[in-house]
Design a protein that fits this description.
With 84 residues, the protein is mostly helical. Helix content is 65%, strand content 0%. Helix 1 packs antiparallel against helix 2. The chain is elongated, with a radius of gyration of 18 Å.
Length: 84
């Protein structure tokens, strides 16, 4: 199970890293062959980076919320303590 979870997090993480590489290449003026312009390459790199970051961040947040390691305002309604 842990290996599967690692693979689930690793693949979007690598996509995010590839997005950073695409944006870095735009700064140095290097066009990667499938792209025709630097602007298109930068936008796709930004999308890859944000998608990878959002997935990994959401995965960590979901895991921490399941284990009750988040602040009270981020926990779901079923885990909130009622005042009685």
């Amino acid at each position: 199970m842990r290996l599967l979870a690692l693979l689930i997090v690793l693949i979007p993480g690598l996509i995010g890293v590839y997005g950073i590489k695409l944006m870095r290449d735009v700064v140095f003026g290097i066009t990667i062959p499938p792209f025709t312009s630097l602007i298109l390459q930068f936008i796709l790199g930004l999308v890859f980076f944000l998608a990878g970051l959002a997935f990994v961040g959401g995965f960590i947040f979901y895991r921490d919320r399941k284990r009750n390691k988040v602040q009270q305002r981020f926990s779901s309604n079923r885990h909130k303590k009622t005042k009685s």
